[in-house]
Amino acid sequence: MTKRRSTRATEIPISLVPHAIALLIRMRGVKVYRISVKRTHHHHYNVSVRTRSLPRELALVRETAPVISSEGRGLA
């Protein structure tokens, strides 16, 4: 059984909730299990993203970006 991980952001204004969710998912970089958004007061929310680890075979391999040289392309 894999260990679940949770990441939280608190007191997020309503207009920034989608951005906060995207940021939390990018921070974890694994499979999303659950997203919880709860209203605290007025127009502020607490956002929690719970994730699961991917099996080693399915985990993304981070590669460095290829270096593109300007030689032979007419670029200075």
Please outline the helices and strands.
Blueprint: E1 4-13, H1 17-28, E2 31-41, E3 44-52
Antiparallel strand pairs: 1-3, 2-3
Query: Between the first and last Cα atoms, what is the distance in angstroms?
Result: 55 Å
Please state the average pLDDT score. 77
The helix fraction, in percent, is 10-25%
Q: Which strands sit side by side, in order, in the main sheet?
A: 1-3-2
How much of the sequence lies in strands comes to 35-45%
Tally the beta strands: 3
The main sheet comes to: 3 strands, antiparallel
**Helix-strand string:** EHEE
Any idea what the radius of gyration is? 19 Å
Instruction: Give me the number of helical elements.
Output: 1
**Envelope shape:** elongated
Low-pLDDT ranges = none
Structural class of the helix and strand makeup? alpha+beta
Give your account of this protein's structure.
- This protein has 76 residues and is of the alpha+beta class.
- The chain has a domain at 4-52.
- It is built from 1 helix and 3 strands.
- Strands 1-3-2 form a 3-stranded antiparallel beta sheet, covered by helices on one side.
- The chain is elongated and about 45 Å long.
Comma- or semicolon-separated keywords:
3-stranded antiparallel β-sheet, 76 residues, 39% strand, 16% helix, 3 strands, 1 helix, alpha+beta, single chain
